[in-house]
Specification:
Layout lengths: L2 E5 L3 H13 L7 H7 L8 H10 L3 E5 L2 E9 L11 H6 L4 E2 L2 E2 L5 E9 L8 H13 L5 E7 L3 H10 L2 E7 L5 E8 L1
Parallel strand pairs: 6-7
Antiparallel strand pairs: 1-2, 2-3, 3-6, 4-5, 7-9, 8-9
Length: 184
């Protein structure tokens, strides 16, 4: 198996991200799978992924031509593009990090992370994050994202990589979220 870590540059790769995303939404997983393997929550459309990708390319892992993992890249310029994420960007004005509001820093949001079944537990996520850091460190002060507290696999993986929790909140729908930050 030869895995290549790169960035998304074509519609075919963006469609590969979307296919992987769809297969890991809660509606397509059992409760046991969500607990043991994690899940994603936001559904992206091709136009939105493409618009984000034009600002900063998403990091992907490919096995031959198949997208087997991704880390989405979002900047503050995309703050209003995905309605469900608008409250997160608004929250950045209220969360403090090192004595300043998160919104006062130049940051990159990890818009979503997913590693395909059959590739988990092999270091693919770590290698994707190494590529993410290599591409964005120096241009952004840190990476930040939010993770459903129910997604314990993702919470643990992000802790292992070096993310630390800077905030936790309950959304109006009752879902609890952990906002985590990776200082470079």
């Amino acid at each position: 198996m030869m895995i290549n870590f790169t960035t998304s540059g074509s519609d075919k790769e963006l469609l590969g991200i979307m296919a992987l995303q769809r297969s890991n939404l809660p509606d397509n997983l059992s409760e046991d799978e969500m607990k043991s393997q994690g899940f994603v929550t936001v559904i992206h459309e091709l136009a939105g992924l493409k618009k984000m990708n034009e600002l900063e390319q998403h990091v992907i892992a490919k096995d031959d031509e198949k997208v087997i993992a991704y880390l989405l890249a979002m900047t503050s310029a995309s703050a209003t593009d995905i309605p469900v994420l608008i409250p997160l960007f608004e929250l950045f004005g209220k969360i403090e990090y090192a004595g300043r509001a998160v919104s006062e820093y130049k940051y990159i949001v990890v818009g979503q992370v997913c590693v395909g079944k059959g590739y988990r537990g092999q270091g693919v996520l770590d290698d994707c994050y190494a590529e993410y850091r290599r591409r964005f460190e120096g241009r952004y002060y840190f990476a930040i994202t939010e993770i459903s507290v129910r997604n314990t696999r993702s919470i643990q993986a992000h802790k292992r990589i070096g993310f630390t929790q800077v905030h936790e909140y309950k959304a109006p729908d009752g879902e609890e979220w952990s906002v985590v930050l990776w200082q470079w």
